[in-house]
Specification:
heterodimer; A: mainly beta; seven-stranded mixed β-sheet; four-stranded antiparallel β-sheet; B: mainly beta; six-stranded mixed β-sheet; 0% helix; globular
């Protein structure tokens, strides 16, 4: 199993540009989530999904959209990039629908810089 | 919602010494408390977790203790080794949902020779 994969590893955007961060998992996990990691602030939940067709907001959803058309994929879309979205983004999945109550498996991360 | 505070933000210990990281939480209904380790440039990985029906859990050199009355839980690493150097995060589920995890702000542990 490849586990949780993310692309790209690095990305530089200009303010106002849009892009999609890709996340895929091959473990047949129903629960998937997106976090951003900023220095001194830990990991903050952006959006999560408990199955195909079901998504919900986390702590910091503004400026981001998600969709879940398949169990395997959970892309994160930045609609109009802002410098405040400069961060490292991690996708995670969990074998339990109650993803907050079980181990989360993280992807390798995407480092995004918005100029 | 759940608020998780983590201390200290940095910790330096000599190889062989013990390290303790403490987290406090606000929601008395929380009942799952994981700890994640993140090495430099790597992804976070679960190292140990505890559920509220027990007060302590051990796995070789690491242990987690939980005090539900005081609403805090701690990570203990004994006989520290250089490979223990990393950032450690505690977490707890957000109130009323099994789907959202709130993380602490992290502790950077440095084990010196």
């Amino acid at each position: 199993n490849a586990g949780v994969t993310q692309t790209p590893k690095f990305q530089v955007l200009k303010t106002g540009q849009s892009m999609t961060l890709q996340c895929a998992q091959d473990m047949n996990h129903e629960y998937m989530s997106w976090y951003r990691q900023d220095p001194g602030m830990g990991l903050r939940l952006i959006h999560y999904s408990v199955g195909a067709g079901i998504t919900d907001q986390g702590e910091v959803p503004n400026g981001y959209n998600v969709s879940r058309s398949t169990t395997e994929d959970f892309p994160l879309r930045l609609l109009s990039a802002a410098p405040s979205q400069t961060s490292v983004y991690f996708c995670a999945s969990s074998p339990d629908l109650a993803g907050g109550y079980n181990e989360q498996f993280f992807g390798p991360g995407t480092r995004l810089t918005v100029l | 919602g759940e608020n998780v505070e983590q201390h200290p933000s940095t910790l330096s210990v000599q190889e062989g010494d013990s390290a303790v990281i403490k987290c406090t939480y606000s929601d008395s209904a929380s009942n799952y408390f994981p700890w994640y380790k993140q090495e430099l440039g790597k992804r976070p990985q679960l190292i140990i977790d505890i559920r509220s029906n027990v007060g302590e859990k051990k796995d070789q050199r690491i242990a987690v203790t939980l005090n539900k009355t005081a609403k805090h839980f701690s990570l203990h690493i004994t006989e520290t080794q250089p490979e223990d150097s990393a950032v450690y995060f505690c977490a707890a589920p957000l109130t009323g949902t099994a789907s959202k995890l709130t993380f602490g702000t992290g502790t950077r542990l440095q084990v010196t020779l």
